[in-house]
Amino acid sequence: MAVAGPAGHAPLAVSLGDPAGIGPECIAEAWARRRDAALPPFFVVHGTELLRRAAEARGLTIAVRAIAGPEETAAVFDGALPVLGARDADYRPGEPDGEGAALALASLTDAVEFARKGTAGAVVTAPISKAELARVGFTQPGQTEFLADACGLPRENAVMMLAGPTLRTVPLTVHAALSQVPALLSRELIVHRARIVAAALRRDFGLAGPRLAITGLNPHAGEEGRFGDEEIRIIAPAVAQLREEGIAASGPHPADALFAPHARAGFDAALCMYHDQALIPIKALEFDAGVNTTLGLPIVRTSPDHGTAFAIAGQRTARADATIAAIRLAGQCAARRLPA
């Protein structure tokens, strides 16, 4: 999988996520483990006092220091967790409210803007509560769509990929009822998103000839039409078109066999027909190291592949490994976008 790229990118901007969730404490622990984890410099957007309290609740003795601009991050990072922005909120783990949702939205909005302006090398987003954010004006289905809108791109150009140490998966349809998936699939959808995935694997992951495995929709990939014909009508023609374009695509593969250890060695990313087909294997195999990264954007964006976990926030039981992995991957991808 990916290895570290060259240094030299701007510091990373990290958004708080919902302050009642595990995001703030995981960010604090990521900074505390920065040396052992070999993390690049990053700053958090807003929440100086909240982060202090989250660190204390986790039993961490760390310094948190306000900075005036991203350019101060490098000088501060070795001795304190840098925080940029004056907005704050009370730390009430496990008790989401409107004040916290407003802070989460402000942190996300400003972090993305730093990345868009180039003063941040990438944005790392901690988990949000979509239901809480909806109460304060968040209209997108999730952060992926928010990023697309903020970058002025069609939402279909922002592609979610889940990346772990041994597996990368892409859901071609995301937040849709399973009954709606067959109607949402098309040859054009598969080809469009596969092109974006292949380009991102080359640009951000350093893979010269990325290999894409494309799943079937039905059991046994339809078994020649006995269990559904989407493979024959839609998926196989899409694979053929991709191969004609020079993309190393294969499939449609039966999804129940694609994620076995010997099979995973044969592809660099699996493109899956629906949400759970992509997320179940990554969460089963690499729950604590899975990273959600958005492909197709002019900026680098990553996020830990888990939710707010309100039920365990502030109890010192949440693992920070996925947050650390998201920060590390953001730095690697940002480094690969530097001019040669």
Could you characterize the architecture of this molecule?
- By secondary structure, this protein is an alpha/beta fold.
- It has two domains: 1-158 and 298-340, 3-Layer(aba) Sandwich (Isopropylmalate Dehydrogenase), CATH 3.40.718; 166-288, Isopropylmalate Dehydrogenase (3-Layer(aba) Sandwich), CATH 3.40.718.
- 38% of the residues lie in helices and 15% in strands.
- It contains 13 helices and twelve strands.
- The chain has helices at 23-32, 48-57, 73-77, 98-117, 130-134, 143-150, 181-184, 187-203, 230-244, 255-258, 261-264, 275-286, 321-336; strands spanning 12-15, 42-45, 64-67, 81-84, 123-125, 159-163, 168-171, 211-215, 248-253, 269-272, 291-295, 301-304.
- The protein has a twelve-stranded mixed beta sheet, sandwiched between helices.
- Strand 3, helix 3 and strand 4 (81-84) form a beta-alpha-beta unit.
- The longest helix is centred in the first third of the chain and has 20 residues, at 98-117.
- It is globular and about 60 Å long.
- The two termini are 21 Å apart.
- The model is unreliable at 1-6 (pLDDT under 50).
